[in-house]
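pasting for the record
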Amino acid sequence: MPKSTSFKKVVVKEDAKTNMRAAKIHPLRLAHGQKIVAAGHLYFPYHDRSMFETWLKFLEEQKPAVVLLLGGIVSEDAFKALWEDEDNYLHDYPEVPEVAEAKEAGLFEDRVMALADRIREDLFVRIAKASGGLVIWDPSWTHLSMGNEVRMVEWIQGTKRFLDGWTANHPDSSDVLSDPSVRVPRELDKLFGLESMDGKEGRPHIKVLRYGAGVKINDELLFMIGDFRRRQPGDASFVEWEQRGCSVVRSFDGKVASWWMTHPDHTLPGLRLKFEQGHEIGYMWDPIYNAHFRDYDRRAAGFWWGRIRFGKVEGRSIPFRRGADGRRSFVVNGKPYTEPEPGCTWCGEEIVLVDGGNTEGEAAACNCETTSHEDHAVLGTPEAISHRADDDPAVLGTPEAISARPGPVEPTEQSTEETGDKK
């Protein structure tokens, strides 16, 4: 009798790995007053468009000397969407215009190069022009349930080989899927047309590193992509500091956190202190188009900002915080930057009762964005304070906020007719 179940052969793809010793750490010297910005995991073109535009305005004003893009900058899912058309019963949002336009380019390699050209102009060149300085792209190989640039290139090359083989084996077919005589570059700088971006003769200055490389500024602060996570903010960068022996700014952990530490270096001939710091930068991708990521992958959105003061690097991670009106903001050096309209909200269509309850004319406003503890964005308004949790760190200790907090309830005298008791 045949068995109702049987063992099935399953092929598990092995993800390529490397380490920073092989990828190399690149030293970079900056002068007093020069500024640095680091961001990671945009997953362009499935990025947070509203905050990306706000971030570009920030770059235009601050003019950092260096912008470091630490992994997950380009979405592998965007390239897969150029050819794969699988049934998906969870995500039914319309395709982004960059991918929709590239799908009309024709053959497979034409689609790939059309999307790569669009990403070069709309992402890398815009960042370089806004900052006016050097843009360093550090591509990622780290996976752990999230996309990376290595798998993007592997999918492009693997699909290209398959389609070229099919086309060669079906010469009489009217369906021409690819051109075997056309080679798609496997090097990222050539794939996206960045190899000539050297900053000379008016060209943007964009440099592409090896997968998982690092940049060490002023022999002090190491910018890198992490390959592990920890549960609490600051823990992953602290472990990284223990292993690397230097201060770090790392991406991938999905949190926005900064810590500083002072400890003795030696005591001969006198006490000499050593100053350490660790930072974790968040993400800048759209949680709607990247809904397949887990909540653990998207703990907080933000980036890192710093500057050189007398040879030392000073900076901190900058979180995005949602205000009472639903818009998100970030503050750098005392100046706020706010998106024009609320973006990446999770308020759906209101459910209206037919008989009783609310009606269309009495629809309640959706305030799920402003009351979320996740965003820590409840401002110090009387309405927000009256509904706040006692441990909400976003309520500021301003005089107005303190005066608006509800005080103790004073007992009131009641008549014997109301209580039925004698005084």
